[in-house]
Amino acid sequence: MEQIARRIREASPKSFGMYEKAMKLAAQGADLIHLEVGRPCHDTPEHIKDAAIAALRAGEVHYSDMRGIPELRQALADKLQAENAMSVDPDEILVTNGLTHAAFAAIMATIDPGDEVIHLEPFYPQHVGKVELAGGRMVAAPLDAANDFRIDPALIEPKITDRTKAIVLINPCNPTGRVYERAELEALADLAIRHDLLVYSDEVYEKVLYDDSKHCSIASLPGMYERTITFLAFTKAYAMDGWRLGCAIAPPAIVKAMMAITMNDVTHVNTFIQYGAIEAVLSGNESARRMKEADRVRRDKMVRALNQMPGVTCAVPQGTIYAFPDVSALGRPSQAIAEAILEDAHVVVEAGSFYGPAGEGHLRLCFGSESEERLDEALERLSRFFNGQSEG
Ligand SMILES: Cc1ncc(COP(=O)(O)O)c(C=O)c1O
């Protein structure tokens, strides 16, 4: 008997990026500095923890509303109105176990076997896996590095076929750090409307914006709410990645379809942690702003240092916690460069090609996951590495 289901056996082989190679070296005792993971280095703000602890002590330990507790969905609806120009009923919000779960439920609820889903490339690999589990087919639409990875309909429209069901948008973008301008989103919306497509809009970094960047939710554009499933999470802005809390916002029929998945896989999200989320939504903006300011200082430090290294050119990321420097001047595949950095400098970075061929010639480095001291040490090691390359 074949014990493993066909959907797993037939899924494309999974790469964990540099993770497995790094784990091998770590097992040999190497002092690795991890710039490959997008894990915030901050602690969850105390007032948010206190709210969850108070709820736990108050006996909020039982089953609750399967869509998420009503107070949290109301707070989110008010936030969406105030910050995202989205007018939604709390019943159009589904609280989920992080953004990952929101995206999984949305894709499982809307993708039939054989449906094609367009991923703007460089893409976020985790969402590709979800499409495959649903029996869908990922179609990459490579964006142009020379054009700053802007959304260009001329590069996306040729990928649309009569099997295309949806487009995945990551805004602000991991890995490129781009915060898409309204005009770019309008161009994507125009494509989605003309070809009658869904848009999955991953906005996990909606609050991680620097300088004067402004975030626009594509669902707020005319004609888009009815075809967009917006994913948000508490993960990055409030340093709550381990809490596993996020949400999806979608028209009622889609929320209902998603609940057919979530009721079967988790029933609902842990009750008392949702009280921490209410505190984050109602009173967390100042804490989020302070953490973001610390990240901005790290961003500036990393970008400045990278641009002084021979063969490295780094654009300033407008949002997220990632730098995506161009290292094509070294004339080697990004995977080989990332592996050499791991071996020689004991710094873990991700190869740009991990995000699809359009990311080739780049590396992705997270400036938000290590302490400032460790970041300084990582930048010194990287500087020695790149100087060594230019001498060699
Ligand atoms: C673009 C993007 N989406 C989703 C996630 C995962 O979010 P969560 O931890 O809330 O599931 C990440 C985490 O790095 C991410 O970068």
Can you walk through the features of this model?
This protein folds into two domains: 6-43 and 286-391, Aspartate Aminotransferase, domain 1, CATH 3.90.1150; 46-284, 3-Layer(aba) Sandwich (Aspartate Aminotransferase, domain 2). It is built from 13 helices and twelve strands. It has helices spanning 6-9, 19-27, 46-57, 70-84, 98-110, 125-133, 153-156, 182-194, 252-265, 273-283, 285-307, 334-345, 372-391, and strands spanning 33-34, 93-96, 116-121, 137-142, 164-170, 198-202, 228-233, 246-249, 322-323, 347-348, 350-351, 363-366. A seven-stranded mixed sheet has the order 2-8-7-6-5-3-4, with helices on both faces. A three-stranded antiparallel sheet has the order 9-12-11, covered by helices on one side. Strands 1-10 form a two-stranded parallel sheet. Strand 5, helix 8 (182-194) and strand 6 form a beta-alpha-beta unit. Helix 4 (70-84) runs parallel beside helix 10, helix 5 runs parallel beside helix 6 (125-133) and helix 5 (98-110) packs across helix 9 (252-265). The longest helix is centred in the C-terminal third of the chain and has 23 residues, at 285-307. The structure holds pyridoxal-5'-phosphate.
